[in-house]
Design brief:
The chain has 12 helices and 10 strands. The protein is of the alpha+beta class. A hairpin with an 8-residue loop joins strand 3 and strand 4. Helix 2 crosses helix 5 and helix 3 crosses helix 4. The longest helix has 17 residues.
Length: 291
């Protein structure tokens, strides 16, 4: 209990450094003060102090100093306290450091054995984002100018936003649209000008959004036309259990899940090796798909 309380009371900046200590030690097998210095821009003295404090106050059995490697290595008793030991934790660190590498001397060289695909961010203006955030936080209505394929010249909309959504490709805001009398997703890069906050709160908040509050599973399987040995490869690729991958999501987000997995619910590829995966419960998900 005391150990848990001490972890919860750690300052956020120290917790970030402890996370780096555990992630690098566990995945790279060797931790030095350089990792902390390059990632956080701190002095060697501070980096050494952080490592020693991590060991003495939180995890005395996790790290051992290896004189031959001139660094700390994980002991056979290693049990992470500040991270989980999943691959995603390390991959997330690689992604973060690729973003910071151009600005921190030595960091690019340290991670030269990896490459991260970069695509241009869609333009989201601060003057658009700030009122949207406040509207979401305080449940306010706002008036905005919005463009779409149907109204490329733009039109005025009255909306009541409740949640920002990142699909992995672009940012949306989930909002009640007074024109359509329904909840819709609005792409942040399609707002024009500065949305104007209204003084009155909306009665159409998150609790009334059926699509948002409906929890569903998207069930993904290997294409049935694949050979058994090909299906086995796909099952491993996607971490399937008993031949299925269950993705828990919201009805309003089903379409985005399919986009992330590059599944077009309206088409079936002629080649099974190109299709690879399909949605097994497509009929049940029809209410949440765009038509």
């Amino acid at each position: 209990m005391k150990r848990k309380q001490s972890i919860e009371s750690v300052r956020w900046d120290l917790a970030l450094r402890y996370r780096l200590i555990e992630t690098v030690a566990w995945w790279e097998g060797r931790l030095t003060t350089n990792h902390l210095m390059q990632s956080f821009g701190i002095s060697r003295q501070q980096a050494s102090k952080d490592i020693n404090t991590y060991i003495s106050e939180h995890a005395p059995k996790n790290l051992e100093y290896d004189k031959h490697l001139k660094g700390y290595v994980p002991s056979r008793h290693f049990k992470p306290l500040f991270i989980d030991d999943s691959a995603s934790a390390y991959l997330h660190l690689l992604n973060q450091n690729h973003e910071r590498a151009p600005h921190i001397e030595g960091l690019a060289l340290a991670y030269a054995h990896t490459e991260v695909l970069r695509v241009p961010d869609r333009s989201v203006q601060p003057e658009v984002l700030r009122p949207l955030l406040r509207a979401c936080r305080e449940g306010l209505r706002l008036e905005c100018e919005y463009v779409s394929f149907n109204t490329p010249d733009g039109e005025t909309r009255l909306i009541a936003p409740h949640t920002l959504i990142y699909t992995g490709i672009r940012w949306h805001v989930r909002a009640y649209c007074e024109k359509n009398r329904d909840y819709r997703d609005f792409v942040l890069s399609r707002f024009r000008g500065t949305p104007e906050l209204m003084d009155d709160a909306s009665e159409n908040g998150r609790d009334e959004d059926n699509g948002w509050n409906s929890l569903v599973n998207v069930v993904i399987e290997p294409d049935s036309r694949l050979k058994p040995e090909q299906k086995a490869i796909i099952e491993t690729d996607y971490g399937m259990h008993d031949g299925q991958l269950l993705i828990a999501t919201r009805g309003a987000l089903v379409q985005y899940v399919m986009q992330r997995y590059q599944i077009d619910p309206t088409k079936v590829h002629a080649k099974a090796t190109a299709q690879q995966i399909v949605v097994a419960n497509l009929d049940a998900l029809q209410p949440w798909l765009y038509h």
